[in-house]
């Protein structure tokens, strides 16, 4: 299906979702990620207020909302990237498969291999294409030798839809690829350590429409294997790629639910106002 009026700024947008019926998109069984009463402070300033959400496995969940509403802050709680911001303090609990990510016993480096992250700007290492993908499996001891490492690199690049474009130049710098290819390389790098969750923070905002379409197709393919959470400014993109959507406003999670319902029949007037372009 197509989505009209990308980014929804002109008039009242009509957003068509390309997702299964709402019943098929509802979480089944235990959620992969369970957040309870999550609050985040930067110094004295509170950026997130009591966020409660269940995020299913093998599905794409989109976080939408106006600039500064806390989408990225919440995303960063899931793999403890907020630990790297000295002024940030996180309260409440986030569990992945029932285990608290903030428990003392959790090594953030190991957590981040289980919960990979893709940023707005593609950030390949200043190394070859091969080394970009091989680095994680090597440091986490996932390959017993060269042949196994090569197999992981190949299968990760294939899953990221990049193999055919780079198979004959694996030993050239990753930074020599186009922006869209670099973003797929970064996704291959995340996949290479067999994560369970992939967090994407506006992964297409630096890409042209063709590269964006490729990443969106890739997200759709990857959802059969991973729990994917994507922050996006584009409601059209949320509608195209996600099965569930969460709307944030002023640091609060206003509502979340099956994407189709969120865009056709939101429960909260703030969501309605946002999706119809009344603010944003
Ligand atoms: N490192 C930081 N230090 C201090 N305040 C921060 C920091 N990062 C974010 N904030 C503040 O926290 C609030 C939420 O920001 P956040 O980046 O999570 O929102 P967002 O919804 O992802 O925004 P955008 O869509 O513009 O990326 C904002 O008021 C922002 O200024």
UniProtKB/TrEMBL annotation:
Entry-linked PROSITE patterns: ABC_TRANSPORTER_1, ABC_TRANSPORTER_2
Alphabetized InterPro entries for the sequence: AAA+_ATPase, ABC_transporter-like_ATP-bd, ABC_transporter-like_CS, P-loop_NTPase, PstB-like
Keywords linked to the UniProt accession: ATP-binding, Nucleotide-binding, Phosphate transport, Transport
Region (Disordered): 1-22
Start and end residues of each ABC transporter domain: 33-275
Segments forming a coiled coil: none
Pfam families: ABC_tran
Molecular functions per Gene Ontology: ATP binding
SUPFAM superfamilies per record: P-loop containing nucleoside triphosphate hydrolases
Matches recorded under NCBIfam families: 3a0107s01c2
Name this protein carries in UniProt: Phosphate ABC transporter ATP-binding protein
